[in-house]
Amino acid sequence: MTSEVKEKVDNILFRHNCEKKELINIIQEIQKEYRYLPEDILIYTAEKLDISQSKIYGVATFYENFSLEVKGKNIIKICDGTACHVRKSVPILNAIYKELGLTDKKRTTDDMLFTVETVSCLGACGLAPVITINDHVHPKMTPESAIELVQSIKKEEM
């Protein structure tokens, strides 16, 4: 781990007074900074907080919001809750997978531009089917409109 990374993590720990009871908030900030929870940073954090590595991994794996896998710059979440599912969220997912060359096993593009996830509910059932891109809600989606969104992001990134 570089000294720059240690300094960033130390700043996060300092903002939370290196308190064990702040563990969830600390790893939320780490994930916000790196878009996932790097193993070396979790180990370093455990040492600095004087907690076991198994404790920190237990928290990181218990909550669905945390990820131990690297994610792309743009996180696309496709709701597959009941309302979205019956309003055809699966064809939207399949269209995005096809557009980005992804599968249910490979969820991040090689260029690290996109990660696609399915979620149980985004809490916008009246707007179904819904996707979010970087937490921005896109209501009443179709496979075609989802592909247009992805293509517009690709153009912006060029």
Structural description of this entry:
49% of the residues lie in helices and 11% in strands. The protein is α+β, with helices and mostly antiparallel strands and 158 residues long. The chain has helices at 3-15, 23-34, 39-49, 53-62, 82-86, 89-100, 143-157; strands at 74-79, 114-119, 131-133, 136-138. Strands 2-1-3-4 form a four-stranded mixed sheet, with helices on one face. Helix 1 (3-15) packs across helix 3. A hairpin with a 2-residue loop joins strand 3 and strand 4 (136-138). The longest helix is centred in the C-terminal third of the chain and has 15 residues, at 143-157. It has two domains: 3-62; 74-157, Glutaredoxin, CATH 3.40.30.10. The mean pLDDT is 94. It has seven helices and four strands. The chain is elongated.
**How much helicity do the residues have?**
40-55%
Number of strands: 4
CATH class of the largest domain: Alpha Beta
Instruction: Identify the overall geometry.
Output: elongated
**In this structure, how is the largest beta sheet organized?**
4 strands, mixed
Quickly count the helices.
7
Rg result: 18 Å
Order of helices and strands: HHHHEHHEEEH
Distance between the termini: 30 Å
Mean pLDDT across every amino acid position: 94
The low-confidence parts are: none
CATH overall fold name of the largest domain = Glutaredoxin
What is the CATH architecture annotation of the largest domain? 3-Layer(aba) Sandwich
CATH superfamily caption of the largest domain? Glutaredoxin
Strand order of the largest sheet: 2-1-3-4
Class inferred from helices and paired strands: alpha+beta
- Can you tell me the number of structural domains? 2
Strand content: 5-15%
